Amino acid sequence: MSKYKDVYNDIKNRIRDGILKPGEFLDSESELANEYSYSKDTIRKALSILELEGYIQKIKGKNSLILERGYLKNVSLSSLQTSQELNKAENLNIKTNLISLYIIQDDKKLMDIFHATKDNDFYKVVRTRSLDGEKLEYDVSYFDRRIVPFLSKEISQRSIYEYLENELNLKISHSRREIRFRYATSEEKEHMDLKNYEMVVVIETYAYLSNGSLFEYGTISYRPDKFTFSIVAKR
Question: Which domains does the chain have, with CATH numbers?
Answer without folding.
Answer: 3-66 (1.10.10.10), 83-222 (3.40.1410.10)
